[in-house]
Specification:
Distance between the termini: 30 Å
Largest sheet: none
Strand content: under 5%
Number of domains: 1
Number of helices: 8
Radius of gyration: 16 Å
Number of strands: 0
Order of helices and strands: HHHHHHHH
Helix content: over 70%
Shape: globular
Length: 200
């Protein structure tokens, strides 16, 4: 008999695929507008802006050390799913700009659209036992080892990222970026159930 609480392999595959595609769409919007965001993706975006390197390769490389932490904290299945999600996002973010373009996209609506796309992507990944790696995993380990609240660790990291962003982007762009990050977090806060799904 099938356990109704467990996803099938097909369900996991489509959930991770959906998450990777929507997250890539969010990154296309973000970088088209020159906005920034938080967490590991935000760090990769800032490095991309500062160096001219592509987001995809930078994001993939930044996440490599976190797979060890993910394996230790969340197990092999979570780590494998996360690796697949990160690799898919990295690859799609490199080719998707050639598939879509924007004749007109205001920063305000673009920030909200980024937040909705990214929030739904993360929800799909969480619900299928994956994530986009990075700082969230480290935050959980610091919470386990040192008693630091994971949410505060992530908030502190994001605050540092946005502080650096002021050196690379004008204040209005950073403000629209903060709106996008707020929408992402609202989508997750309102819709995510930690008693049912893994969140990192």
């Amino acid at each position: 008999m099938t356990d109704p609480k467990r996803h099938s392999l097909f369900e996991d595959a489509q959930g991770i695929a959906y998450g990777a595609v929507m997250a890539s769409f969010g990154i296309v919007i973000l970088t088209h507008l020159g906005l920034v965001t938080g967490q590991t993706a935000g760090l990769a975006v800032l490095i991309s802006y500062a160096t001219g390197w592509g987001f995809g390769p930078v994001f993939f490389v930044i996440n490599l050390p976190f797979y060890v932490l993910g394996y230790l904290r969340m197990g092999a299945v979570f780590t494998l799913k996360t690796f697949i999600a990160v690799a898919a996002l990295s690859g799609l973010s490199m080719v998707m700009p050639g598939w879509i373009s924007f004749d007109h996209l205001t920063p305000a609506f673009g920030a909200v659209l980024f937040g909705l796309a990214s929030g739904s992507a993360l929800m799909a990944l969480f619900r299928h036992g994956a994530s986009l790696g990075g700082i969230g995993i480290l935050a959980l380990i610091l919470q386990d080892r040192l008693g630091w609240r994971a949410g505060w660790v992530q908030l502190g990291f994001d605050a540092a990222l946005f502080t650096v962003a002021f050196a690379l982007r004008d204040p209005l762009t950073v403000a629209w970026s903060a709106l996008g990050a707020l929408v992402v977090n609202l989508v997750i806060a309102i819709n995510h159930r930690r008693d049912r799904y893994i969140a990192t």
